[in-house]
Amino acid sequence: MSGSWLETIAEKADLSPQEADRRLRKWGIAPDRVARPAPSFIIERLAFSGEKKGEILGRIDFEWAGLGPGVWAVTSESNLRGKSTVLEVMLWCLRGKAKGLQDDVRSWLSHVDLEFGVDAEKYRVAFDMVDGAPNGRLERRALDGEYLEVERFTSDEGFALTMSQFMMDTLDLDVLPAMQGREGERREVEHGWLALSNVFYLGGEHKVLLGDAQMAGLPARIFQMYVGLPWASTKAVVATTKKELDQRRTNADREAHRSAVEAETARARLGKEVDEVRKRLAALPTETTTAEALAQAGQAVTLATTKMAELQARAAKADADAEQIQAAAVLDERAVRDLRESIVAARFFNGLKPTCCPRCESEVSTVRVKAEISDLACSLCAEAIPEERLEDMSEELEEAEARAVASKAAADRAKKTRSDARSAAKTATTEFNTAQTELAELARGADFAAKRKAELELARLEGALKERSAAPQEAVPDPDADLIAIAVRETGKAYDAGRTGIIDALNTEVLPLARRLGIEALESVKLDSAGAMKIEKGGTSTSFGKVTAGERLRLRLATAIALLRVGRRLGIGRHPGLLIIDSPSKEEVTKVNLEALLAELRTISEEIDELQVIVAGTDAEEIISALGEEHCRIARGEDYVW
Known about the structure:
Helix content: 40-55%
Radius of gyration: 56 Å
Distance between the termini: 54 Å
Strand content: 15-25%
Shape: elongated
Structural class: alpha/beta
Number of strands: 16
Number of helices: 16
């Protein structure tokens, strides 16, 4: 069937079988596997130890060995004697995560062992409580009786993961995908061992036929998996995949529609704003300064800035040059004076400078001292110094005087250049200030500012309007959408073709089993492939959810047992045959009903070798009467079970 299923899908999708298979497996979609019977699952021994604390003190040392197929019970003559704890510790070991174990009881425990068999294989879960967390191993028993490690765990999370992986693989169960969340926000989630393990536990108010999950769609998928309906797993995966793709397309379409609405609203708003700005522009005076005038004024400022900077640099250089040349002229003039003075002193006074007349001691005046240098006249007698005496110094003096004259001329020219440069720089600065003032006045003009602002706003609005006027992008469907839609239809056909006979077989089994378990007025039972049950009882049509809690418990038991019978007969199904029932007596009207129920369960278990039922409840005498003391763990009087 898997070959024709894949080939049909490939042909209708116009793909090769290889390409269709590759693209389907990308979504986790695979053809149905060959049906195979579920393994049996039998708990053989439970032991736990620890120390009670608080108001109740004492050593905990519980062991219940020798368990096997059939109906077993832990019972007491009083309430709150620890019966439910035994079941909860079992569930903790099987699930890897406690279901309803009380926190105080968990804190008392120090060591837990659970031994169980899966077909011919024997296993053990053994762990110590270390710092409040389970630390131990899942082990397999070898032929020589020695236990070999399968997996180790050191935390609550590790324990849950270990048992999930082991149970899902050993019991041949599949993870159930589903879409959860509000409309438009759904996301894919996976339901694994913690959801599937609840099929073994019959407690609470019995609102669901198998397990205790009440989320939309999940009870039906759990039912289909444990029944072993062909193509049920593939159908669940393709349905979830299609829902995911549909949601993606819906979200994309919704987003595209939202964007289109927003764009239309924006276009209308922008159109009005564009019209308003255009009217505002048209209303402004026509002689208003234009952007071109502002640009010209700005260019004038730029040119004036460049010219001013250049002339200021020239003026600075002229200042520096004039200072340097003036300093050189001063030095040359001083050199001429020093040379004249040296000539006079050397020739007539041997380097001395008389301050008074050697005869009359009259003081030599300052005027005569200066004349001696400038006029070459003696400072004492005022007579001219003979030129023939200076012939040897004349050449040096002439050169010094020539340098002094040239330096003075250069200094005069430098002063003129500096003055011109300063004047030009001042003029350029004035021109810059004028251009800058004109630019500022243009920019501050009210009409110009208003027009410029309107022009910029119009350009922005027109750009936004053009952007909003572009054709919206349509949502593009996933390239695998058509392939998945075809897979949904073909898988549905395969599923419908294989389910009818199995469901009919279950209905045939459930009706007499439910009557044997105490629903005497039951006239007919009709299960469908989604796990919904219609009932005819007392001449009235009703449903599973509308009968009493005691009747729901019996119907759940009948359905589970029917799964085992049909599964073993047809070689399908995945229910391993373990049922754990907590406090069935609270659902019963009389003790007689409880005793009859357990007695019938015992008879049925003798007909089915792989069935194991473990019950916890009070009414010890009725339970012992139905099952026998050898199948009961009993707490007498006010004693505790552990």
